[in-house]
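$ ./design --mode recover --in tokens.txt
reading tokens...
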């Protein structure tokens, strides 16, 4: 009888083309298009900033600086102004983005550099830029780290005969050699930032879309009363609906997850904040894949249990939707908490329903999940699911609730 109830639920979903399209196909297509579009837009924005020619004004440029700057061969356009020129207009242009940077040397700059032992402080080079403008921020960074830095080394070389005389030691002369990192773990850290949040929300929304109609919808239409009058045990009916909803939720989440993976080549910089993530370096062992699957299945079980319990207590679909909204907020808070933090740190935190599961997914994707953390998370989610199923089956035996009396 249990199989008959499950088949009935699945047939109801998969025989309705509009329901299949709205529950499985449309969300996956929207996710793929949305993330691919966002990734492409972000890449284009970065390329635009990199290719932009920085517009700089330099005031009181020391003798020889103009030739020095020209020899740097950078994509920077420099206009030189004298000490009496008004810079207020230039600052206003920086505010609105028409000018990227103003560099101001002190008057008598070279004399102060050469007479360094006669002054309490070295001469200053001031920069004025707009940190809210990408062009301005990037332009200042390039100008300071290349032109001004190299110019300072030339002045030190002139002062001491060799610039190395003014340097006691170098730090990380070859920065690439200083980076010691597991490439697989680094790439996993990238996708573990936002993917656990997306997985939790997709799993819940996938179950919610159909779950409300599965129970509350049937109560509203009156078909639930007919089903309860059959010889089947009410516990069997309840389990059949929960299992059927779980299968549908897993299929819905799987199609959405495939869409996310398909969009990763374009959206990796959106999901991770860095475009250099090496997806090919991410390789899960069979044990890690089983752990991830178990965590996701037990998380689905919690979501299905919550949605089913709320739906069975509600009189109508509208009422069920109203009751589920706060639960959806709790799910989103638990999911977002792992986005802006490191997730669960202590072992007991993995026992917190939903939050512990999302944290376990995050740790698994980052290749940091321990066996104890996995067991605590999975067992806690399983126990929570069993409690919810018990409450649902008890409610199915409550005539007043089931018949909307």
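writing sequence...
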């Amino acid at each position: 009888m249990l199989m008959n109830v499950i088949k009935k639920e699945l047939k109801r979903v998969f025989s309705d083309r509009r329901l299949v399209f709205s529950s499985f196909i449309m969300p996956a297509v929207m996710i793929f298009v949305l993330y691919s579009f966002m990734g492409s837009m972000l890449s284009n924005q970065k390329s635009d900033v990199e290719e932009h020619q920085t517009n700089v004004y330099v005031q009181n440029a020391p003798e020889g600086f103009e030739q020095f700057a020209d020899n740097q061969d950078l994509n920077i356009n420099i206009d030189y102004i004298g000490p009496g020129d008004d810079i207020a207009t230039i600052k206003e242009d920086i505010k609105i983005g028409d000018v990227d940077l103003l560099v101001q040397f002190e008057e008598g700059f070279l004399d102060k550099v050469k007479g360094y032992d006669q002054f309490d402080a070295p001469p200053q080079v001031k920069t004025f830029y707009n940190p809210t403008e990408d062009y301005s921020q990037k332009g200042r960074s390039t100008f300071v780290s290349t032109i001004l830095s190299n110019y300072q080394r030339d002045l030190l070389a002139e002062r001491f005969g060799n610039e190395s005389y003014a340097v006691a030691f170098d730090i990380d002369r070859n920065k690439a050699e200083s980076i010691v990192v597991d490439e697989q773990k680094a790439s996993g850290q990238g996708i573990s930032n936002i993917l656990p949040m997306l997985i939790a929300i997709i799993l819940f929304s996938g179950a919610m879309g159909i779950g409300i109609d599965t129970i509350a919808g049937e109560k509203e239409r009156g078909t639930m009363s007919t089903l309860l009058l059959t010889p089947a045990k009410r516990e069997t009916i309840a389990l059949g609906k929960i299992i059927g909803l779980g299968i549908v939720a897993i299929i819905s989440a799987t199609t959405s997850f495939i869409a996310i993976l398909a969009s990763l080549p374009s959206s990796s910089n959106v999901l991770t904040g860095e475009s250099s993530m090496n997806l090919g370096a991410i390789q899960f062992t069979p044990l890690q894949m089983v752990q991830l699957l178990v965590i996701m299945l037990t998380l689905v079980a919690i979501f299905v249990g919550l949605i089913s319990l709320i739906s069975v207590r509600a009189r109508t679909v509208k009422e069920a939707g109203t009751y589920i909204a706060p639960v959806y907020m709790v799910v989103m808070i638990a999911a977002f908490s792992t986005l802006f933090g490191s997730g669960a740190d202590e072992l007991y935190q993995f026992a917190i329903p939903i939050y512990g599961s999302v944290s376990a997914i995050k740790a698994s994707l980052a290749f940091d999940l321990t066996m104890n953390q996995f067991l605590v998370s999975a067992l806690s989610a399983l126990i929570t699911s069993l409690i919810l199923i018990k409450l649902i089956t008890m409610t199915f035996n409550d005539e007043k609730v089931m018949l909307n009396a």
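exit 0
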